[in-house]
Specification:
It is built from seven helices and no strands. With about 200 residues, the protein is mainly α. About 35% of the residues are buried.
């Protein structure tokens, strides 16, 4: 969802204009294509070995468990951490509000596949699959979710999530766990947020 780190333009007389459903979906698709392109180009130019992606039921289950845990923990943090709630609400209003429920599938799949391919599949491997690589890739991943200084707490949470995704990639040696976790986190978090907003309406 990092394409949305660029907030809509603002003028002196009007509030930020909301993005439309098609703008959000196009932005997700374009970002996914860019990230996948960078991943492929990085591998092509450097010849590094990407973290493999293959089916393993245990690794998939680990990803599913982490994805469920992150989504539920995010929802809890949203309720108890005020600065996070304010930042997340502004961010999610921009990204999720225009989307239909069916679009939450793409909200999971597009960033889940492309961001994991780039950050955990290529960058983590290129930087050495160690603690320093984990920190660097997680900080950059989190920074891409920062629209402005007010979103610092949201960015801190994105960095923490990036650390978890990187850690399970290093543990399993398989990109599957991080992809499943990311897809589940995005889609389920979106569903929870949409549900809460419908109750407030």
């Amino acid at each position: 969802m990092s394409i949305f780190s660029q907030a809509p333009k603002q003028n002196q007389d009007h509030k930020n204009e909301a993005l439309s459903r098609s703008q959000v979906l196009i932005a997700m698709a374009v970002t996914a294509i860019i990230f996948l392109g960078i991943s492929k180009l990085w591998v092509y130019l450097t010849g590094i070995s990407m973290v493999p992606l293959y089916w393993n039921i245990e690794h998939g289950a680990i990803g599913l468990g982490i994805g469920l845990g992150v989504a539920l923990l995010s929802s809890l943090i949203y309720e108890i951490w005020e600065s996070y709630r304010i930042a997340a609400q502004e961010y999610l209003e921009m990204v999720l509000k225009p989307l239909e429920t069916v679009d939450l599938i793409w909200l999971g799949l597009l960033p889940g596949l492309s961001e994991e391919m780039l950050f955990r599949g290529v960058a983590l491997s290129a930087l050495g699959m160690n603690g320093i690589a984990l920190i660097i890739t997680s900080v950059v991943f989190g920074a891409l979710h920062m629209a402005n200084a007010k979103h610092l707490s949201y960015t801190v949470w994105a960095i923490a999530v990036g650390m978890m995704l990187g850690a399970i990639t290093m543990y399993t040696g398989n990109l599957l766990s991080a992809i499943v976790a990311h897809v589940v986190t995005n889609s389920l978090s979106g569903m929870i947020w949409k549900y809460k907003q419908s109750k407030l309406a």
